[in-house]
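MODEL INPUT / OUTPUT PAIR
PAIR INDEX: 1
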Amino acid sequence: MDQIHIKNLEIFAKHGVFPEENVLGQKFVVSAVLFTSTREAGQKDDLTKSIHYGEVSHQIRRFLEGHTYQLLETVAERLAEELLLELPLLEKVRLEIQKPWAPVGLPLKTVSVEIERGWHTAYIALGSNMGDKKAYLDLGVQRIQDTRGCEVTAVSGYLVTEPYGMVDQDEFLNGVMKIRTLLTPEELLDRLHEVEQEAKRERVVHWGPRTLDLDILLYDDLILDQEELHIPHIEMHKREFVLQPLCEIAPYVRHPVYNRTAQELLETLRGGSQ
């Protein structure tokens, strides 16, 4: 991915753990690497097709001058989020924020925090078999769209399916949505649980009836195995009610473990082979 560099932008601002730092202020030095595509701008010689580094520099200055935080980590985190949310062509940003002559009681030239943040692509499975099923799925989509740092980019049609696992229950309505997100996998999972709780989801019986079920299927090409979170979803390649709506919006997305597309996984499942 192409990069635009802003190096050593000096800003006088009021951040620090000591009260006098928040009153008197001091110099901070900010460097940013903006990850974007400059191809179209370069071909057409058109600034509107790229990121205006002058405007971004002023945006960084306004942000640092307009807020007061104790930690450099917080300054970097909040600034990265603002840039990613406000600049449509920005896919990823690397920030370094230096604090020259930080008050540590020792001779010191500078300290700094450097972070890299960016947009991720995730696929979320939706399911409901209680009450107004469509309304619950619509609620799940809308609440994720309303979440800061999340954008729903595609939603499959809803599919009526037979229950999976515990079969003595009502039919399900299932779907899949594609999102762009700034959240980590763990943060995204927490947010999905919050939305489920809003829908009065009760986790009483495994694979039992539920008003709203939201599961992370894929997150970029990440492979993650934690006690509470497995990515890719460990059952997705066995579930036609997941693969069919996934293929509707992303037939060529690839399973990072099996290295097969969603369409290939669905054809294999329907063919009866593993």
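PAIR INDEX: 2
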Amino acid sequence: MDITTLIGILIGFGSLALGFWEEGGSFGMLVVISAFIIVFGGTLGATILSFNLEDLKKVPYFLKLIFKDKKVNYIEVLESLVDTADKARREGLLSLESQLATIDNKFLARGLQMVIDGTDPELTRSMLEMEMEAFESGERVGTEIFMTAGGFGPTMGIIGTVMGMVMVLSNLSNPDELGASIAVAFLATLYGISSANLLWIPFGTKIKVKTAKEVLLMEMVTEGILSIQAGENPRVIKEKLMTFLPLETREKVVAQERAQMGM
């Protein structure tokens, strides 16, 4: 479980509810089924209308991605690339065949297989970059779906409010009920804006951030594979690949090296 997703949702909606309660409101006043149906049903319908079936079938995968805590272990992959480079330099590229089954990173394993098969370096780079672009394009669909829902949510809220006001204005014969009816009408706007800013847009942003981390790792792997294929020194490869690491990760690697050297 990605704890930040859960914490963010709880704090966001909890703050709204607590603030409303502090102003003297009750939680029951915030629950209006008709407004819920208009906003969430309308947002769902408009979002479905915006995408094809193949894209929408991926929504369960994207929801799993949002709530699942999948750590990108840059250091582990970096060390694997350096060890592989050392083995290739000592025993030759064909010696890497025996360790392919032990590599968890599928992108790395496919790249090494191309190197072992003697694929031309330019073709290796091209194929890896195409796979990277395909991955990024596929993940971008998730960002677009939730960002689109975030755009429709407030609009559906306004539509719900307008529909509520139509009902209010058509029943002006009961002035004592006008205040409560208007409050209920504006709840649709509240639902639309809060769902967009506390659910859909943050969901899209989280997919975008996680995808960027995966793509950065794939870029590092691509450069590492091409360096191994070129027969570069493992130490040089490590220094080159460290430039891909986020600053805090890079500092951690440097600290580990100094500890190993007794500095």
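PAIR 2 NOTE: The first helix runs from residue 3 to 22.
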